[in-house]
Amino acid sequence: MSKNLGIRAGIIALVVVVALIYLTPSLTKKLPPWWSNVLPKDKIHLGLDLQGGIHLNLEVEADKAVESNLERVVEELKHDLRKSKIRYLDLKRLGNEGISVKLMRDEDVNGLQEMLRANYPDFDPGTPSYEDGKPVFQVMFLKKARDRIMRMAVDQALETIRNRIDQFGVSEPDIRPQEGHRILIQLPGIKDPKRAIALIGKTALLEFKLVDEDHSVDEALKGHIPPGDEILYETSIDRKTGQRRRIPFLLKKRTLLTGEYITDARVQIDSRYNEPYVSLTFDSRGARLFENITGRNIKKRLAIVLDNKVYSAPVIQDKISGGRAQITGRFGMDEARDLAIVLRAGALPAPVKILEERTVGPSLGKDSIEKGFKSTIIGGILVILFMAFYYGLSGIIADFALILNVVLIMSGLAFFGATLTLPGIAGIILTIGMSVDANVLIFERIREELRLGKPPRASIEGGYGKALVTILDANVTTLIAALVLFQFGTGPVRGFAVTLSIGIIASLFTAIFVTRVVFDYFYNVKRMKKVSI
Amino acid sequence: MEFIKPGININFVGNRKWAFLVSGALILATILLLIRHGGPNYGVDFTGGVLIQVRLDQTRSPGEIKDALKPINLQDSIIQQFGDKSAAEYLIRVRKTNLELTGLSDQVKNALVSRFGKGTEIRRVEMVGPKVGKDLRQKALFAIFYAILFIAIYISGRFELKWVMSIIMALSLAFVVYLTSSFGVSVTWLIIIALIVTLCLCWFLNLKYALGAIFALIHDVTITVGAFALTDREISLAIIAAFLTIVGYSLNDTIIVFDRIRENARRFRRRPFPEVMNESINETLSRTILTSGTTLVVVAALFVLGGGVIHDFAFAMLVGVVVGTYSSIFVASPVLLLWERKTAGNADQAKKGRKNGMRINSA
Asked: Considering the domain boundaries, does residue A170 fall inside one?
């Protein structure tokens, strides 16, 4: 028996040492260098509700990516039709479903079908119907292809957002895709949530468009927008009065160049006005395009449009070669810096919508930790005092198990890389209350056995034996509830489920196994005659 | 030291009518309250909307804050003092879900700063779009549903060694849920239907311990929901977690009593069941009260000292622990006695049962 006891004590010692090793990084500010090389160095992760930060749930509007893809196909198709001399009356996008083509001549029907089959594998040409005696095709996008584009849009959005956040500089961001074109983002410790959200959510589609100077803006504002034109606005804030002004621009709809060719974007300071601006560098293809555009449109105004807002519309003085451009527009320093980040990281393939936002300020998180800690300690001390008072030496043994239990929960969190949240702290507190339950059950049984007049050793034996099944039964149900919570919960709730589960398992170990070893030591090895219970 | 002397014999079973009356009244009150409030008071997690926690430079009345929010058309928001009375912290809830929610917290901050000065600090923002709110509600309800389902399977399997029965029950339940959900029934009704079906199945498959346990936990969660409705508290995601913990806790208590009943029923085969049951409850009474006591102490510490964010969570636990303890003594076990009447078809047993009942009542 006592040999067996040695092995059991050894197991406990081993568990305690391992637990302390995992716990040490969270307790000390600075680890000795030799420690980091061989031993775990991860601290317990604190949830956003404890350290402050942002939780965002974004939806990538993947339909928009399909739409813009269709727009591109419409342009391509126009080009191809012209090339193969197929005349059409009308060619337009049908929502995000497909393209409708109205041909001029009946004899082109076969030609169009063949061309679609050969060059547009993502589409189902279908059969023509007739409208005013002209053949009309409803060329539908295949579902497989649409799904692929949507999936790619989400993947690309994920990558772009990851890039932006990396460049913004957040330690330990958590960015993961979710079902239904959603992206979940957790940014701990963010000081300026507004800025971070603006940075993530910006589509950042940069376009260069010509200003239509042949038509008047005022006429267009009255509703007579010339075909192929659009009105976009520049918003400027007057430095003196602080008033916002919206200046309308009449632009040619056609985009001459987009931001996809940008290789670098940096903030620079204009030496004359001491104002920041963003300088862009294009890759070689972009540089060639830019040179062409500027060369062909000297003395015309070229508008720089970001997400359908005009930033500036300078007059092209000369052909610009070398692939460099700059965006001016009365920026603040942060605004210019963020603009450079989004331009460097690239545009989102489709706009994103914020479905859920939870922000916790750092001061609130700190408050929560302090209060949670305080109530844990006070609740714990009350329970410890009560147990010692009610059960004497046995109560003190249970208290020892209880403290060990809390240590095990904390190191368990570190071991599994789990996150401690505020409900998680509540979970620990609850485990403190409930873990003594196992000992209460055992002690009450031992008391019953003693009352029957059994000797200490037999009573302890009987008490543990009879209470064990009950304890297991009772804890399995709580464990089931915790596991279900883990499966369905998110964020703080999941943290609660994790601490509760770890707590249940740890309390089974400490309350049954550890206390039994101590009891056996006192009453089998030391042969104490009277049970203090 | 002992609070409860050994050999105590309180006639819990004999007085079960009173307990049923109290429980029935509480559940009825909950239902009436819920009807009057038009369902549970869901927080922004489930309804969608915005919740903003602000700290101001000094205490202000809700009216003043509403007034400050007038320029941005949010004067209809619900303003609530948060945390300690001395702290100038407030919750602003915006329920308008048709509003553009993004950037709303900024507008609120600007409006408050322009009225109350620079001391305004936005401490927490929770913005949940209507779509996510609906998702979260479904997820939460399904979590409760699955927890109950798994626990029912476990109890009937474990306690009565009727694993086959419990699997039959699970399958038929899954079938019913599948059938009703294909009619497009809302999740809330789905759960209510599923619970009724579970209880019926337990009844007809003779899974009496499972019936008692599930009955008790429905009882506990319902009354806790009622306490929330009564005190005008909101049900958020964390509260659902608290409910599930109450489910676990309530069962924990119930199982310990049931275990003792089973043990004693095996030992004293000749003694009448109600008597054995009453004795078992009395034997475990000391443990029941001690554990509830220690759990209550820590939860109360959390309730008083834990701060505003965790306050409602602690409240749910507080109510749940009290009700859970009560139900494991007064509700779960007496449900087992329903079997006495169910098996009354057998004349012999019926006679015995009636006699036992009388003896208990006169004890």
From this structure: no
Domains of chain B: 16-42+132-362 (1.20.1640.10), 49-128 (3.30.70.3400)
Q: Are residues A107 and A255 in the same domain?
A: no
Residues A217 and A343 in one domain: yes
CATH number where A69 lies? 3.30.70.990
Say yes or no for a CB contact (<8 Å) between B298 and A386. Answer: no
At A187-198, the pLDDT tens digits run 988 878 888 888
Give the closest of B1, B101, B241 to A496, CB-based. B241
Nearest to A353 by CA among B104, B129, B126: B129
* pLDDT tens-digit readout, A83-114: 888 888 888 888 888 888 888 888 888 888 88
Q: What b/e sequence results for A495-524 when a residue is b if at least 16 CB atoms lie within 10 Å of its CB, and e otherwise?
A: bbbbbbbbbbebbbbbbbebbbbbbbbbbb
A163 or A33, which is more confident: A163
A375 → closest Cβ in B106, B284, B305: B305
φ, ψ (nearest 5 deg) of residue A323: 70, 40
Specify the DSSP element, H or E, that contains A521: none
Domain range enclosing A396: 2-52+361-525
User: Which residue in the block uniquely carries the two structure tokens 């081993």?
Assistant: A14
Q: What span, in angstroms and rounded, lies between the C-alpha atoms of A367 and A373? A: 10
Are A62 and A150 spatial neighbours (Cβ–Cβ below 8 Å)?
yes
Examine the domain organization and report whether A219 and A115 are in the same domain. no
Determine the Cα–Cα distance for residues B302 and A375; give it in Å rounded to an integer: 5
Inter-residue contact A478 to A437 (CB < 8 Å): no
Q: Quick check: is A176 in a domain?
A: no
Query: CA–CA separation, B214 vs A518, rounded Å?
Result: 38
Residue from the list A201, A392, A426 with its beta carbon closest to the beta carbon of B302: A426
Say if strands A275-282 and A182-188 run parallel, antiparallel, or are unpaired.
unpaired
B151 to chain A, any CB pair closer than 8 A? The answer is yes
Query: Does residue A314 belong to any structural domain of this protein?
Result: yes
Say whether both A380 and A516 belong to one domain. yes
How many domains are contained in chain A? 3
Contact B259 A436 (CB under 8 A): no
As to burial, measured by CB atoms within 10 angstroms (0-12 exposed, 13-18 middle, 19+ buried), residue B211 is buried
Residue count of chain B: 363
pLDDT in tens, B145-157: 788 778 778 877 7
pLDDT at res. B99? 58
Q: Which residue in A has a C-alpha nearest to residue B148's C-alpha?
A: A481
Say if residue A501 is in the same domain as residue A437.
yes
User: Which residue, A359, A376, A404, sits at the end of a domain?
Assistant: A359
Residues A339 and A286 reside in one and the same domain: yes
Rounded CA-CA distance A428/A376 in Å is 8
Does one domain contain both A328 and A370? no
The answer to whether the CB of B360 falls within 8 A of the CB of B14 is yes
Cβ within 8 Å of A, B 82-101: 101
Q: What CATH number does the domain containing A278 carry?
A: 3.30.1360.200
State how far residue B147 is from chain A, nearest Cα, in angstroms: 5
In a domain, A530, yes or no: no
Sign (positive or negative) of CA dihedral A401, A402, A404, A408: positive
Report the 10 Å Cβ neighbour count for A319: 14
- Among candidate residues A359, A375, A400, the one where a domain is terminated: A359
DSSP-assigned letter for residue B343:
G
Distance separating alpha carbons of residues B169 and B173, to the nearest angstrom: 6
CA distance B128 to chain A (A): 4
Task: Give just the sign of the alpha carbon dihedral A264, A265, A267, A268.
Answer: positive
Query: A139 and A98 in contact (C-beta within 8 Å)?
Result: yes
The whole-angstrom separation of Cα B133 and Cα A296 is 53
pTM: 0.81
Token duo for residue B258? 């049931």
Same domain, A235 and A321: yes
